[in-house]
Amino acid sequence: MSPEERDQSILDGAIGLARESGLESLTVRAVAARVGVTPALVAHYRPGMDTFVADVFGLIVAAEREEVIAAFDDTDDLREGLLRLIETLLDADRDDVTLIWVQAWALGARNDALAARVRQEMDGWQSALEQIFARAAAAGAIAAGRADTAAWLLLAMVDGMNAHSLVKWAPRDRADLARRALAAVLDSATPEAEVTGSRATVSHSPDPRPPTHGPPIR
User: Fold this and answer.
1) Residues 71, 88: contact at Cβ < 8 Å?
2) CATH of span 1-47
């Protein structure tokens, strides 16, 4: 086996282990046992475990993002496409990736390389969703200039609900949950919502004119 093939086998083994048991399972010994080599060989090819964990995380979540966004690109119906995207992300079959995300947020507090990769991958999701919502704005489905807000809200809701599901604190009907999440995101970013918000802001603005008093009582 060439050095390149050996390195790839170690990487593939680590990815498989992380999908089964999470990022916390990635130790030199565990990866070595998975691949069937000595710990010294793993350490030789991957001398920095923090960076290795970050690489494994990035490869797993980037692959999921590419898959989900590519599936969305196949549809012409914006709302239907968004609903399918959310249903896909809330699918219980993806709990292995959800666990990887949740552990990455926690482990990133002590692993600078992982923290940087988490930020990079979250930026990737934010950018991909912004592009989708920019199409919605162009079609008049949401207010112009609200694509970033809609993307952030959707990302936060999906991340939160998926994290809740790991401890079984989530509605059983995930399809209904997806519909409600989508409605909340779109309703918050519609042109009508923006106008209503503007009116509410204006109506609560203080009157700059000095108070007018009636004639003194005699």
Assistant:
1) yes
2) 1.10.10
pLDDT band of residue 192 (cuts 50, 70, 90) is low
Distance (Å, whole) CA 17 – CA 15: 5
Query: Using one digit for the tens of pLDDT, what is the confidence trace for 139-191?
Result: 776 777 778 888 898 899 899 988 988 998 877 777 787 788 778 777 766 65
The tokens describing 129, both together, are: 């969703």
Extents of the domains making up the chain: 1-47, 57-191
Q: Which CATH architecture has domain 57-191?
A: Orthogonal Bundle (1.10)
Q: Which residues of 21-40 are buried (b: 16+ CB within 10 A; e: fewer)?
A: ebbeebebebbbebbebeee
Neighbouring C-beta atoms of residue 181, cutoff 10 Å: 23
This model's pTM is above 0.90: no
Asked if domains 1-47 and 57-191 share a fold, the reply is no
* Cβ atoms within 10 Å, residue 54: 25
